[in-house]
């Protein structure tokens, strides 16, 4: 029986074990002093109070042993209990420092919910995090990257996880089950095709752990967009196509590139949503709907009809049943 109790005791985490040991010694010495000098230490609590103050070497002097035996016990307590309390406080400090170091190294799991998970540290993800913090300052972000040695952001809203995102345990450390959305950026240390294959592998892993979470992925080659959809990506962003378009407009020399820059600046200030058209809008011109949305400080960009996207619909076109409107609204900073 005692062996089992002793074995269980040593299986307890060291800080809790030290705490229980300190409490045991303080109660033991306090109770002993109460029975040795009941006139000075009237209650057991008085004895425990004296033991804590003496063992920590604070020494208020409000309770002082009057007998020789009591003073001998006091010396034993100072030699033994003082060292034990000091060791306990040092262990707490060492544990706090280790936790901070592990946090910076990305070894601490994330336990909160409703957060965004961004995979990959690069200029794109860096700028994305900056924009999220600027526009939605209270949004929590978990950054997952295997190559970094320490947290590159150092923000209370960004939690760094170091690990291989193709492994389940890395996603579990990022608390994928409670996350709101996932953004997987392309790892450009690979060739374009290899980067896309790696992105698709990460998408499969994330989708296997969470069946419904929106997953946004960056794909570099057009050929792999279909495979990314098959892997479970909710939205696919082909950055090379956007970059090529910008290059084309710049090379044509008609200042379309400047317009593209302004559009990108506009997009950064907007939040977008897709809403099903109200029943009382059916048959109405898009011009009427546009005027109505403007009163709500919203901008109609396009419509999704029969799984096709129609941007900037004609003002005389009519709203049809099952139409979904693509709407932009300026991000509120309230």
TrEMBL record:
PROSITE patterns the UniProt entry points to: RCK_N (PS51201)
Q: Which PANTHER family match?
A: POTASSIUM CHANNEL PROTEIN 2-RELATED-RELATED, POTASSIUM CHANNEL PROTEIN YUGO-RELATED
Domain RCK N-terminal positions: 113-238
> What protein name is recorded for this chain?
Potassium channel protein
User: Matching Pfam families, A to Z?
Assistant: Ion_trans_2, TrkA_N
* Principal cellular location given in the protein's record: membrane
Any GO BP: potassium ion transport
What stretches pass through the bilayer?
12-33, 40-60, 72-90
An example GO CC term for this entry is: plasma membrane
Its subcellular locations are: Cell membrane
| Record organism | Halalkalibacillus sediminis
Q: By its UniProt entry, which InterPro entries does this protein fall under?
A: K_chnl_dom, NAD(P)-bd_dom_sf, RCK_N, Trk_Ktr_HKT_K-transport
């Amino acid at each position: 029986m005692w062996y089992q109790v002793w074995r269980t005791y040593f299986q307890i985490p060291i800080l809790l074990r030290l705490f229980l040991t300190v409490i045991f010694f303080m109660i033991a010495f306090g109770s002993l002093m109460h029975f040795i000098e009941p006139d000075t230490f009237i209650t057991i609590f008085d004895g425990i109070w004296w033991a804590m103050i003496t063992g920590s070497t604070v020494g208020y002097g409000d309770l002082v042993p009057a007998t020789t035996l009591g003073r001998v016990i006091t010396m034993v307590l100072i030699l033994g209990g003082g060292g034990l309390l000091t060791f306990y406080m040092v262990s707490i400090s060492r544990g706090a420092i280790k936790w901070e170091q592990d946090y910076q190294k990305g070894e601490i799991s994330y336990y909160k919910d409703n957060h965004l998970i961004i995979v990959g540290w690069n200029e794109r993800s860096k700028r994305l995090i900056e924009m999220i913090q600027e526009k939605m300052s209270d949004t929590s972000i978990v950054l997952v990257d295997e190559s970094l040695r320490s947290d590159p952001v150092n923000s209370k809203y960004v939690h760094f996880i170091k690990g291989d995102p193709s492994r389940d345990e890395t996603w579990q450390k990022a608390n994928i089950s409670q996350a709101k959305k996932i953004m997987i950026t392309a790892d450009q240390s690979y060739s374009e095709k290899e980067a896309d294959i790696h992105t698709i592998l990460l998408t499969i892993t994330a989708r296997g752990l969470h069946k419904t979470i929106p997953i946004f992925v960056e794909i570099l080659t057009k050929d792999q967009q279909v495979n990314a959809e098959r892997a479970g990506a909710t939205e696919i962003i082909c950055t090379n196509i956007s970059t090529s378009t910008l290059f084309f407009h710049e090379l044509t020399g008609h200042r379309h590139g400047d317009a593209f820059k302004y559009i990108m600046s506009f997009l950064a200030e907007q939040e977008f949503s897709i809403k099903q058209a109200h029943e009382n809008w059916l048959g109405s011109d898009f011009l009427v709907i546009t005027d109505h949305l403007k009163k709500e400080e919203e901008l109609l960009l396009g419509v999704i009809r029969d799984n096709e996207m129609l941007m900037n619909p004609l003002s005389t076109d009519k709203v049809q049943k099952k139409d979904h409107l693509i709407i932009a609204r300026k991000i509120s900073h309230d």
